[in-house]
From TrEMBL:
InterPro entries: ConA-like_dom_sf, LDL_receptor-like_sf, LDLR_class-A_CS, LDrepeatLR_classA_rpt, MAM_dom, MAM_domain-containing. This is MALR1 protein. Keywords: Disulfide bond, Repeat. The gene is Malrd1_0. SMART domains: LDLa, MAM. GO terms for cellular component: membrane. It comes from Nothocercus julius.
C-alpha cells in the first residue's frame, strides 16, 4: 500500500483503517515495514480506537523524511479486552513530491491462552473460565493473563499499584533530587518515554515517569519507596513491575532493598540505556532476615531524550510490616574531644598523647615520628596511601556548604573526588573510568577519582592534605594517574601556603586507558599543603583517577650529634650533606647555604 503525494495542496491527510478486532492477549505485538521519503513527505502515526473510548491512543509516529529506505516499526498492543480498530494516518505538507508506503503487517502472540486439560503443580494456576494453565508468578500482577480476569481475583490491593488512583501506599523519597510524575498519554518530549500506560494500554491509563529535561541534570535521581514488608528467612517475597526505557539518552533504572529507613540500601537489579519503545517486565525474588523496603530509582541521562516510565508494581507472597529502624547520625564536622595527659607544654608545643612529652610544633606532621606513640604524625598526610582500606589517608575536601549556592542544592550534582573501583562501574563506564586499580590490578581494588558525571565544564574539584610543617631537600610526591576518555579535562598538583597557591605539575587530555606514573618534586617547604585539582571536561566521558600516592624522602634533615666528616659539607644550620651535593641547584641544606656562590 503506498501514497504518492505530488499536488500542491497543503496539509493533505490520508487514513488507512484496520478491520475491527474483538480483543487481544497480554503479549500481543504488531510490526510492519514503512517507507517515508521526500522533502515534504510529512508525518505519519498509528492510532488505536477502542469502543467506548472517545479519544484515540497514539501507538507510533514518525516525522518527515526517513530516507530512501524501508524501515521496520514495532508496536506493543498488550491486553485489550474491548473491540478496537487501528488507524494509520499520513499527513503531507508543502509543495514537493513525497512517497509513503506500508508493507508486511504482522500480528504476533495476540490470541488468548489456550485451554488445558489439566493444570497441576504448585507453580501453576488454572484459569476459571478460559481453563488456561499459566505460571503462578503471573497471578495478582495487574495483568489479565488468563483472558477472563480470574488470575486477578481476590488479590490484596495493598500489594499492588497501577497508579490509576494515585501512588497507592508507595511514597516519593524525601532525600532524592526530584519526584516521579504521574502521567496519562505521551510524555512531553519527542522520541522518548511511553505513548501509553501498561495497565490499560490506552491514553486513559496512568503510569509514573521520570522527566529527563531541564532543570534536571545528569545523575539526578528520582526515588519511589515501597511500604515496609516482613522478613522472609526461609521463603521468598516476589516483586514484579513493568518499566519503559526509550530514548537515545536514557541512563539507568535501579531497584534497591533497604532494612534501615535513612539509608540508600543494597542494589538488587538495574537496567542501563535505551531498551526500545516498549514496556518490559521484571521479576525479582527477595530474601531478607529483617523487615525491608524496596526503592525504585531512576537516574537522569546526559540529555533530554532519557525519560523512564514504571507501571503495574506488585508483590506476591509478601506481608506488610510496621516501620523500619533508623541509623542515628552524628552531624558532619563533629569530633570527640581528645583527653590530653598531664603536661607542662606551651601553646607552641605539641603534646604526645601517650606520654605527655612536649615537642616543637614544627615537628608535627613532618613525616618523622618524634613521639613514642607516633601521635605527632597522626591525622597528617600519610607517607603511602593506596585507598585499599577505603579511607582517604588524611586527604580531605572542602565542605559542601563552602561551594556555590547553585552547586550545593544537591551534593550529587557537585564535581568532587570520591573512592571508586572497577566492580562498581556501570556498563559503558569502563570507557572513561579505570576498570582495575593500580595497587592490586583487580576490579575489587580501590582508587581515588573525580567523577565527571556530575558538575559542569570547567568546574574544579580539590582534595588537600593536612598542613605539612616541614619537608627535607629531597622530598617528592609520586603517584599513579589514569586519564582516559573522549572528554578528559586536566589534573594538577598544587602547593598551597596560606592564601598563596602555586602549580607544581599538570597534565591534560586523554593519556590512554592505562595507569601512568607521575613524580612531583617538593624539596624543602614549610607550613604548606599539597592539593590535587581535577578540572572537568565538556562531558561525563572523562573521569580522572589517582592511586598509590607516596611521599618519598620527605622527612627534614637532622642535625647530627657529631662533627661533619671530610667528605661532608657543614651547612650554616649545622646539617651535614655530601660535598657532591654542593652547587647542584638543589637546596640540600634547607637554608641554601650549599648553593652559596662564595663557597
Amino acid at each position: 500500500m503506498f501514497i504518492l503525494k505530488n499536488s500542491s495542496n497543503i496539509s493533505q491527510v490520508a487514513q488507512l483503517r484496520s478491520p475491527k478486532f474483538s480483543q487481544t492477549g497480554p503479549d500481543c505485538t504488531m510490526s510492519f515495514w514503512y517507507y517515508n521519503y521526500g522533502l515534504s513527505v510529512g508525518a505519519a502515526k498509528m492510532q488505536l480506537f477502542v469502543d467506548g473510548l472517545e479519544e484515540p491512543t497514539v501507538l507510533w509516529r514518525i516525522y518527515y523524511n526517513q530516507g530512501n529506505q524501508w524501515l521496520k516499526a514495532f508496536i506493543q498492543l498488550g491486553r485489550l479486552p474491548h473491540p478496537f480498530q487501528l488507524s494509520l494516518d499520513k499527513i503531507s505538507l508543502g509543495f514537493y513530491d513525497g512517497v509513503s508506503a506500508i508493507d508486511d503487517i504482522t500480528f504476533e502472540n495476540c490470541a488468548l491462552p489456550t485451554p488445558a486439560i489439566s493444570c497441576e503443580g504448585p507453580d501453576r494456576f488454572w484459569c476459571s473460565v478460559t481453563k488456561a494453565c499459566i505460571d503462578s508468578l503471573l497471578v495478582c500482577d495487574l495483568v489479565d493473563d488468563c483472558g477472563d480476569g480470574s488470575d486477578e481475583d481476590n488479590c490484596n490491593p495493598d500489594l499492588q499499584c497501577n497508579f490509576e488512583n494515585g501512588l497507592c501506599n508507595w511514597e516519593q523519597d524525601m532525600d532524592d533530587d526530584f519526584d516521579w510524575i504521574r502521567k496519562q498519554g505521551p510524555t512531553p518530549t519527542l522520541n522518548t518515554g511511553p505513548f501509553k500506560d501498561h495497565t490499560l494500554g490506552t491514553v486513559r491509563g496512568h503510569y509514573l515517569y521520570m522527566e529527563s529535561s531541564g532543570p534536571y541534570v545528569f545523575q539526578n535521581k528520582a526515588v519511589l519507596v515501597s511500604p515496609v514488608f516482613s522478613p522472609y528467612a526461609n521463603e521468598t517475597c516476589i516483586f514484579r513491575f513493568h518499566y519503559h526505557m526509550f530514548g537515545k539518552q536514557v541512563y539507568k533504572l535501579s531497584v534497591l532493598q533497604r532494612t534501615v529507613s535513612n539509608t540508600k540500601g543494597q542494589l538488587l537489579w538495574y537496567q542501563f540505556g535505551n531498551q526500545g519503545n516498549r514496556w518490559m517486565r521484571q521479576t525479582l525474588h527477595i530474601n531478607s532476615s529483617k523487615p525491608f523496603q524496596i526503592l525504585v530509582e531512576g537516574t537522569v541521562g546526559d540529555g533530554f531524550t532519557g525519560d523512564i516510565g514504571i507501571d503495574d508494581l506488585s508483590f506476591l507472597s509478601c506481608t506488610l510490616y510496621r516501620n523500619l529502624p533508623a541509623i542515628s547520625t552524628t552531624p558532619a564536622g563533629t569530633s570527640v574531644p581528645v583527653t590530653l595527659p598531664m603536661n607542662n607544654c606551651t601553646e607552641e608545643e605539641f603534646v604526645c598523647r601517650a606520654s605527655g612529652t612536649c615537642i616543637q610544633m614544627t615537628k608535627k606532621c613532618d613525616f618523622r615520628p618524634d613521639c613514642s606513640d607516633k601521635s605527632d604524625e597522626a591525622s597528617c598526610a600519610m607517607e603511602m596511601c593506596n585507598f585499599e582500606d577505603k579511607s582517604l589517608c588524611g586527604w580531605y575536601q572542602a565542605a559542601l556548604e563552602e561551594t556555590s549556592e547553585t552547586d550545593s542544592i544537591h551534593s550529587t550534582n557537585i564535581f568532587k573526588w570520591g573512592l571508586g573501583r572497577g566492580a562498581n562501574l556501570f556498563p559503558g563506564q569502563e570507557k572513561h573510568s579505570p576498570s582495575v586499580d593500580h595497587t592490586t590490578f583487580t576490579e575489587e581494588g580501590w582508587y581515588l577519582f573525580a567523577d565527571s558525571s556530575a558538575g559542569k565544564f570547567g568546574q574544579t574539584a580539590d582534595i588537600t592534605t593536612p598542613v605539612i610543617s616541614l619537608t627535607g631537600p629531597k622530598c617528592k610526591m609520586v603517584f599513579w594517574n589514569y586519564m582516559s576518555g573522549a572528554t578528559v579535562g586536566s589534573l594538577q598538583v598544587l602547593s598551597k601556603s596560606g592564601n598563596i597557591t602555586s602549580k607544581l605539575w599538570a597534565q591534560s587530555d586523554s593519556q590512554g586507558a592505562q595507569w601512568n606514573r607521575a613524580e612531583v618534586f617538593l624539596g624543602v617547604r614549610s607550613s604548606f599543603q599539597v592539593v590535587l585539582r581535577a578540572v572537568r571536561g565538556v562531558s561525563y566521558m572523562g573521569d580522572v583517577a589517582v592511586d598509590d600516592i607516596t611521599f618519598e624522602d620527605c622527612s627534614p634533615l637532622l642535625i647530627p650529634d657529631r662533627p661533619c666528616t671530610v667528605k661532608e659539607f657543614t651547612c650554616a644550620n649545622k646539617y651535614c650533606i655530601p660535598k657532591d651535593n654542593l652547587c647542584d641547584f638543589v637546596n640540600d641544606c634547607a637554608d641554601n647555604s650549599d648553593e652559596n656562590p662564595n663557597i
